[in-house]
DNA sequence: CCCCGCAGCGTACATTAATA
DNA sequence: TATTAATGTACGCTGCGGGG
């Protein structure tokens, strides 16, 4: 078979593997090249789509005794030990790879991915992920990974990102992280709304004990996700940390601004934020969008790259300011589940425009059509699981929408600017009726606030000057960053100096030492390394490992205890969520 | 055993009353 | 008039008990 005569590989050829594959290679290339593929353990035709010639022959450049014969028949070794493959062999390989690549490309276009190819792709992706996670250090609590974010956005070739944030309840548990040499599970203090990473780092056992007694443990996990605006892009974990849920709206705002600034330094523009409906988040949104709020001490527009939102002139009732730096939305998963719950609710009725929707159309669909057409299951229509986002996906899938559009009774609804105006006007008209009922019409007419624009202007004035306006004097300049920092550093040093080595032996922590003493006294027989119910205490440890251990004094001699063991020693109670919620968290 | 609704709690915020 | 204290609201989480 001559590859140069062949215009395209057939599907059968593409699916060749193992012996069939090698036979094909023997026929179309030659015996030696076939052997090369065997050596490289390439067993499938489809594997060739992602390989280059250099990768295949690279092995021959190495000094491997078993391959000497193969080397001789495929090329030459020059005096400087470099290997050169014979031109004819190279041409053959090039041709083969070209044919395979063009075939896989065309089959991709036909969206006719063979299973084999999919597997290869998944394999490739897994490898890529593995490389990424092994190269870059793992997520460190509190650390905002802006440099990785830059890498991520470059891979999606889009410089605009949307950031989401949410917190959820978790089991609190203190543990020691060897990599960062710090304790995790305490709730880190916020500076400018940003949690301090590696804040709980100490070499003193007593400091740790103090933290156990006084510091708050994290009862929540707060997670920041970023997503490139490119729709196909995956999402990216920006930051995760424990929190005790004690924070204010201004913390949120500052955190957002911090993320915005840092991203800008990396050349990325954060378009907006989305969170759930926690009142502090909502307040932060209000502060940031200056919705009847004043922030006299912060300048949101110092980078001069605000978004200009075009609000129609007629919309006198739309009070949002034109210039914004962020867009806000409740996170779409919440919205989707809420709409679904409403849609499936037996009591409430979801109206969209003039159309009243309901689950009857969907139920009809399930009854009349086969599952292959809509992919819905009956439980999708039972509102029992109110958080089932999978159901939302299925209900709103293209398949279902398509089928619904074909149904005359369930027409699609497109919301336009005009529709919104209509809705507002209708609401205003019905409000007028209520006003008429209480005989206020004349009064309003006299005061010149009976028409919509007039009333809007009136309300706007009232809202902006009245006490309903919120004023926040919290500062947002750079000098503030430093002062806050110092404050916390002082605090840290204060603790450290208070518990320095001399004091460790003093009477302040007698009680503590005695407990230690008991432990060792019970277990202490004659060995240098003691086991006491899994808590090991050493007389001596490797100097390289010294920062993983606490120096403690027992019976006036110095011993070492691993920081992890110290955590175990100090955790007295096991906090857990009730069982069903625990399962939710595990998910 | 699992799921759900209910009451209670904690947190932050908004509003109102009281005070300097 | 500006600040502080008290009260009320919203929301999410927890524990409990009932029902399937």
TrEMBL record:
Organism: Rotaria socialis
Protein name: Uncharacterized protein
């Amino acid at each position: 078979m001559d590859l140069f005569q062949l215009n395209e590989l057939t599907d059968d050829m593409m699916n060749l593997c193992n012996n069939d594959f090698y036979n094909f290679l023997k026929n179309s290339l030659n015996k030696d090249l076939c052997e090369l593929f065997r050596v490289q353990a390439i067993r499938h035709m489809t594997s060739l789509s992602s390989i280059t010639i250099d990768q295949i022959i690279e092995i021959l450049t190495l000094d491997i005794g078993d391959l000497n014969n193969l080397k001789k028949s495929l090329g030459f070794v020059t005096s400087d030990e470099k290997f050169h493959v014979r031109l004819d062999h190279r041409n053959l390989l090039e041709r083969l790879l070209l044919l395979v690549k063009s075939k896989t490309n065309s089959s991709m276009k036909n969206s006719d991915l063979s299973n084999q190819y999919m597997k290869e792709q998944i394999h490739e992706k897994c490898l890529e992920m593995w490389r990424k996670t092994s190269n870059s250090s793992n997520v460190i609590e509190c650390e905002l990974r802006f440099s990785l974010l830059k890498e991520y956005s470059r891979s999606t070739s889009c410089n605009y990102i949307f950031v989401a944030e949410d917190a959820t309840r978790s089991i609190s548990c203190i543990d020691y992280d060897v990599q960062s040499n710090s304790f995790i599970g305490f709730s880190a203090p916020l500076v400018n709304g940003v949690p301090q990473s590696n804040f709980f780092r100490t070499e003193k056992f007593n400091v740790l004990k103090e933290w156990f007694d006084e510091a708050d443990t994290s009862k929540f996990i707060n997670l920041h996700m970023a997503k490139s605006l490119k729709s196909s892009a995956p999402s990216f974990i920006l930051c995760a940390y424990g929190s005790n849920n004690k924070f204010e709206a201004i913390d949120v705002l500052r955190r957002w601004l911090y993320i915005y600034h840092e991203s800008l330094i990396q050349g990325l523009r954060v378009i907006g934020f989305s969170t759930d409906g926690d009142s502090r988040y909502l307040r932060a949104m209000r502060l940031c969008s200056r919705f009847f709020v004043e922030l006299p001490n912060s300048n949101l527009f110092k980078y001069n790259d605000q978004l200009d939102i075009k609000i129609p002139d007629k919309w006198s009732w739309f009070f949002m300011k034109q210039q914004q730096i962020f867009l806000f939305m409740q996170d779409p998963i919440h919205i989707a589940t809420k709409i679904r719950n409403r849609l499936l609710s037996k009591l409430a009725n979801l109206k969209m425009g003039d159309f009243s929707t309901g689950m009857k159309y969907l139920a009809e669909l399930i009854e009349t059509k086969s599952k292959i057409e809509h992919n819905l299951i009956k439980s999708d229509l039972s509102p029992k699981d109110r958080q089932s986002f999978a159901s939302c996906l299925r209900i709103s899938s293209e398949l279902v929408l398509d089928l619904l559009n074909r149904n005359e009774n369930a027409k699609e609804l497109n919301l336009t600017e005009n529709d919104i105006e209509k809705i507002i006007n209708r609401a205003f008209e019905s409000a007028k009726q209520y006003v008429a009922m209480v005989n206020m019409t004349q009064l309003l007419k006299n005061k010149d606030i009976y028409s919509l624009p007039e009333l809007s202007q009136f309300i706007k004035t009232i809202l902006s000057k009245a006490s309903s306006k919120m004023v926040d004097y919290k500062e947002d300049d750079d000098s503030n960053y430093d002062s806050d920092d110092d404050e916390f550093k002082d605090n840290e040093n204060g603790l450290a100096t208070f518990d320095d080595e001399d004091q460790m032996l003093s009477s302040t922590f007698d009680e503590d030492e005695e407990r230690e003493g008991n432990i060792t006294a019970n277990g202490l027989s004659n060995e240098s390394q003691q086991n006491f119910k899994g808590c090991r205490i050493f007389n001596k440890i490797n100097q390289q490992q010294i920062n993983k251990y606490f120096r403690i004094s027992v019976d006036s001699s110095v011993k070492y205890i691993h920081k992890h063991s110290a955590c175990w020693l100090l955790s007295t109670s096991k906090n857990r969520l009730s069982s069903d919620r625990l399962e939710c968290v595990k998910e």
